[in-house]
Design goal:
Layout: E1 2-3, H1 5-11, H2 15-27, E2 32-33, H3 34-42, H4 46-50, E3 60-61, E4 66-72, E5 79-84, E6 90-94, H5 100-103, E7 113-118, E8 128-134, E9 143-147, E10 150-155, E11 158-163, E12 173-179, E13 190-195, E14 201-205, E15 213-214, E16 236-241, E17 249-255, E18 262-263, E19 269-273, E20 282-287, E21 291-292, H6 315-318, E22 332-335, E23 339-345, E24 357-362, E25 367-371, E26 373-376, E27 379-382, E28 385-389, E29 398-403, E30 409-413, E31 431-436, H7 452-459, H8 464-477, H9 482-489, H10 496-510, H11 515-520, H12 526-537, H13 544-550, H14 556-565, H15 574-583, H16 590-600, H17 604-612, H18 623-631, H19 638-645, H20 652-664, H21 669-679, H22 686-694, H23 699-704, H24 706-719, H25 723-732, H26 738-747, H27 752-763, H28 767-774, H29 779-788
Helix pairs in contact: 7-8, 9-10, 10-12, 12-14, 14-16, 15-16, 15-17, 19-20, 21-22, 22-24, 24-25, 25-27, 26-27, 26-29
Length: 794
């Protein structure tokens, strides 16, 4: 990127530095290049580099854009999350009081602040600041959503609703909406709320969240009046609720630290997620409703390091259990990082490559990125396009990004030499940038939501707060707003995302009788057909006829949505629809396969039976059918699964996936008997096969089977002194091995193997053996035995 002298002025260089540029250009008439700018920036003092005056000079901005400071310290410090209201004002959550127990940093006794920053003259710089709320209970909030005169602030263990009742930009009323959320003073706790195109609120928490209670401290219930299941659903989760905070749903689970969910106009959800630090597994996800995203073992809750059959070879992939049936694939893995805020940019001010794409902050590598997405089968592929990068200034730590009403980007910068849950080395700095094409004034369009015409125009704004006002105004106007909404929806030359926004409202106002819903089911654009199905699912009544109509759709993404729509649908025809959708699986598209799995959850027996009727004489003849058997969770699939796992004509490595699938099958005795039958074979690698089978047999079954116990003893003898031996004894509980466990514990008391042996020995009644050794005459053995159990804690 080449930079003109005027651009350098914009970036904040002093006259002295510009003098260097001028000197250079007298001998070289070309513009200053990025590498030459690197040299100029390097010549600044450390104090100058940290100064807001030179803030923009440390950044590399995408071609066609420039980044200018909207606000900076001392007006604000440590911004964690932002929102931009319909007037273009930037609302900021500050976090001076961030994790003092870990950082040792001082705190403000009066609490952190919720700030309002305003640009009154359109020059793209804040010149008016207000404190909307400050209180000792506000300590490092991680989320904010502005809804007119009401503001949601997220900070474990609470979600607060702050209301300005008299219009003075001060919160007069504070209510607890949700509470009991774990992760207080932890960035893996409660995160921001966002407003969806369906008029609902979407939000998430990281893997510290754990639970959700209502404002009265009672368990939150879903639309069926049932408490949310926080045992089946684990770790980080995505939620949706009605505008009054009722009818809460869990839309995805098993993330690590999913920082902020982003919703596009079709209702598709996108997120980032952080890996266990240092494993280069940061990921971007399309959030398939009701999906499991694999941070922990779905069955046991074990971490990704725990040994399992068919583990992925690379740690960044292994981290997410991607080889397990029932885990939704990742859209993109971006390596190491500290991912934070995200938005879907549906404005038109930025260059085309950023339009209708996710834009995301990753504070670790100092970058704001877009992830241009393309459809691929029932899923997507994505690439990376940087918007803003701290190429020269590594203190640039983008924490959140929002879209202003004029279509420009507003980016919050935590600005700190460190990043992560335990790092906050500079408490006195923080910045807000506006990113827009060069020389673009900050002009906020007027919003008039009092008429249907004005509200429909506002509904198409790229800013969430404007859309919130417009959506609620149109919904309040009701049937009188229908003509204007239909005018937008029926305009086939209009942006289909804007048509989708109109469709959502028409469905809410008119219900299933909406002519626009009927028309949308026949649209040539598959995204509009998907939107129509999603809108139908949110309306009262049986959605089965609509799902059935679309089940033959030529587009795999529409069929994916049909499969997802069957989730928990108990109607008569659901199984036959699923079987039809399963017949369209191509044996390659993991997204489609996992959508089928989500649709069949809780109803595998009847869905799989319906599929078998259509699968022909040999249900495992082709790759697609074999995948469905692999994904199935019904005892009816066990004979086929056993046939695949025991097929000696296929390499054992290729069959590992089927052995792993046994773990997820609820077949009970039938499953164990099928595995046991394979142990009696006489193939070339039978011992290796038996070892594998024993990892998947039910321990109680093994103890009652002489054949299984005989095979287990052979393996224990063959693997004694290894980690495999420890794993087998631990899994099956074999008290007859206590003497050998004691010997192993004394041989290697300071190694993990010896400590594990001592722990297992005590857990299965071996304490008398240990006492006898401790009281014996051999003081060396006594010391070793004691050393091996020193960390047991018993």
């Amino acid at each position: 990127m080449k930079l003109s002298k005027s651009t350098l002025y914009t970036l904040g260089f002093s006259a002295a530095v510009l003098g260097l540029v001028a000197t250079y250009q007298t001998t070289n008439p070309s513009r200053v290049t990025g590498s030459q700018l690197d040299t100029l920036y390097a010549n600044l003092s450390e104090e100058q580099k940290r100064s807001p005056k030179y803030a923009g000079a440390g950044l590399t901005v995408a071609e066609g854009l420039e980044a200018n400071l909207f606000a900076h310290e001392p007006v604000i410090t440590n911004p964690t999350n932002i929102d931009v209201d319909h007037r273009g004002r930037v609302w900021v959550c500050e976090a001076y009081n961030y994790r003092p127990a870990i950082t040792g940093n001082p705190t403000h006794a009066e609490g952190d602040r919720i700030m309002i920053l305003e640009d009154t003259d359109g020059d793209g710089k804040s010149d008016k600041q207000k404190i909307f709320y400050q209180g000792p209970e506000i300590n490092a909030p991680l989320g904010i959503l502005v809804m007119g005169n009401r503001v949601l602030v997220s900070q474990s263990p609470y979600v607060w609703l702050l209301t300005d009742t008299n219009g003075d930009d001060k919160a007069d009323k504070r209510e607890v909406i949700f509470q009991g959320i774990k992760g207080e003073q932890h960035d893996h706790g409660m995160h921001a709320f966002v407003f969806g195109p369906d008029g609902k609120l979407y939000f998430n928490f990281g893997n510290e969240g754990g639970q959700l209670l209502d404002g009265k401290g009672q368990p939150v219930v879903d639309k069926n009046g049932k408490a949310l299941d926080f045992k089946k659903n684990r770790m980080g989760m995505v939620f949706r609720c009605d505008p009054d905070f009722t009818n809460v749903e869990i839309l995805g689970n098993n993330f690590r630290n999913n920082f902020e969910v982003a919703i596009d106009s079709y209702g598709t959800m996108w997120q980032s997620d952080n890996d266990d630090d240092g494993n280069k597994g940061v990921r971007i996800n399309y959030v398939m409703p009701y999906g499991n995203y694999g941070y922990q073992d779905e069955l046991t809750g074990a971490g990704w390091r725990a040994n399992r059959t068919n583990m992925e070879e690379e740690i960044p992939l292994r981290h997410w259990h991607l080889n397990d049936p029932g885990v939704v694939p990742n859209l993109l893995q971006t390596g190491a990082g500290s991912p934070t805020g995200m938005v879907v940019y549906e404005g038109r001010m930025l260059p085309q490559r950023f339009q209708d794409q996710m834009i995301h902050c990753d504070a670790g590598p100092n970058v704001v990125r877009a992830y241009p997405v393309k459809k691929e089968g029932a899923g997507y592929t994505a690439t990376i396009a940087n918007v803003l990068e701290g190429t020269r200034d590594q203190w640039f730590r983008p924490s959140d990004v929002c879209v202003a009403p004029d279509g420009s980007l507003i980016v919050a910068d935590w600005y700190d030499p460190g990043v992560g849950g335990h790092q906050a080395r500079d408490q006195n700095r923080g910045r807000i940038y506006r990113v827009a094409p060069a020389n673009t004034a900050y002009r906020i369009p007027k919003v008039d939501a009092t008429t249907p015409e004005g509200a429909v125009e506002a509904l198409q704004n790229p800013n969430m707060s404007v859309r919130y006002m417009a959506w609620n105004a149109l919904f309040g106007i009701g049937t009188k707003a229908v003509p204007q909404l239909e005018k937008l929806y029926n305009n086939e030359s209009a942006n289909p995302r804007m048509r989708a926004r109109a469709l959502w409202l028409l469905s809410k106002i008119q219900g299933k009788s909406s002519p626009s819903l009927e028309k949308a089911l026949k649209e040539t654009n598959p995204d509009l057909r998907i939107t129509a199905l999603r809108a139908t699912l949110e309306l009262p009544g049986d959605p089965t006829p609509t799902i059935s109509r679309l089940a033959d759709d030529a587009d795999p993404q529409v069929r994916r949505e049909c499969a997802l729509a069957l989730h928990n649908l108990q109607t008569q025809g659901a199984a036959d629809i699923w079987a039809k959708l399963a017949q369209e699986y191509d044996g390659k598209d993991r997204w489609y396969l996992e959508a089928l799995g989500i649709g069949a959850e809780g109803q595998w027996d009847r869905f799989f039976t319906a599929w078998l009727k259509t699968a022909g004489e040999n249900p495992i003849e082709n790759a697609a059918d074999r995948d469905i058997v692999w994904r199935a969770r019904t005892k009816e699939s066990i004979p086929m699964l056993a046939s695949l796992a025991g097929d000696a004509s296929v390499s054992l490595k290729e069959r590992l996936r089927y052995f792993r699938a046994f773990d997820f099958n609820p077949g009970g005795k039938e499953k164990s008997e099928a595995l046991l039958k394979m142990m009696g074979g006489d193939v070339e690698n039978q011992d290796e096969l038996n070892k594998l089978i024993l990892r998947h047999l039910d321990p109680d079954f093994v103890k009652k089977s002489p054949q299984a116990m005989s095979s287990l003893q052979k393996l224990l003898d063959a693997t004694y002194g290894t980690s495999e031996y420890i794993e087998l004894v631990n899994r099956y509980g074999v008290p007859s091995e206590n003497k050998r466990l004691l010997e192993l514990a004394m041989q290697k008391p300071y190694e993990g193997l010896g400590r594990d042996a001592g722990r297992i020995l005590l857990s299965q009644g071996g304490a008398p053996l240990v006492w006898a050794t401790l009281k014996g005459k051999d003081t060396g053995k006594a010391a070793a035995a004691l050393a091996s159990i020193r960390s047991v804690g018993s």
